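=== Structure Prediction Worksheet ===
Name of assembly: unnamed complex
Input type: mixed (protein and possibly other molecules)
Chain count: two
Listed entries:
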Amino acid sequence: MIKKQRRPIEEVNSSSMADIAFLLLVFFLVTTTISMDKGISLVLPSEGNELEVNRKNIVNILINESGKVLLDDRPTKVNAISGIVERKLSRNSNLIFSVQTHPRTKYQDYIRVLDQLKEAKATKISIANPPAF
Amino acid sequence: MPDIIFMLLIFFMVTTVMREYEGLDIIMPRAKMIEKLESKRHTSYVWATKDGLVSVDDRIININDLSGLMYSKIVKDPKITVSLKADEKTTMKLITDIHSQLRTANALKLSYSALTKAP
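=== Predicted Assembly ===
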């Protein structure tokens, strides 16, 4: 009779498990990019939805191609916009700010002006189409 | 100890969103009053370079095709926000064109992607 020899059951060596997990962890830590999507939000008006607005409630902001700003026909420094806008808003909260740009205006200048408007907590911002030159 | 590591591992695996595409070479403008976008899943990126190239989903497209493309996106996901990643030296002509294309497509939620202003 052959005696069956009992072999001890071999276990998988699990001591390196933690190392593997660590390695994977480091890999995912490195590849994870924390969402960097930030920006200035705006809601565009839907097409063909032009509203008639009282002239008194509109503040025109014009930006020319060299980044100079004309706020209600007065040349204004970009940094001063938020202060002026805030004062205007405290007098009349229904104001609509119409931002008009020249086709060759730099995007950076436009963002700066929008940033100033946002800083003054202006909510009604209208983007006028640049007039045809 | 391995349990904790595994837990962290699973957390990072779940939260990791592999970058699908890189986009174009742009320098984003800087701004102070920037807000976070609500969700990455409901965001569509439009890239615009200073040379007037427009790219959506890793493909350079003609500006006039933008509204059609955006329309098909908005039909699939009405909550979509368009994140406009434009170079700071882009001219407003291109931006205005993108505006009108988006308006045609009824994709009205827009976000101008910007970096935080260095103090």
